[in-house]
Amino acid sequence: MLTEKRIAELLRASSFEYQQAETAHHRLDEQIAGLYKRHVLTPQEELRVKQMQKEKLATKDQMASLIRTYREQQAHAQSH
User: Chain-centre distance of CA 14, in angstroms?
Assistant: First the structure.
């Protein structure tokens, strides 16, 4: 059985949707880290951080879903 890490590597090489989600996840992570480098955030910046955190979580969920789907498809193919 393939590990989650190995499936992610395969999807990274073959799935445009996975690549987009992963790129967005990393971009959001960097943007959030950049805002947290400031000592004080304005209320607007705090709101933006919360929105970016939600977007980041959604991209992580999307990547996990793609990994699950890949794993299920492989299991189904092997059972037939």
Answer: 16
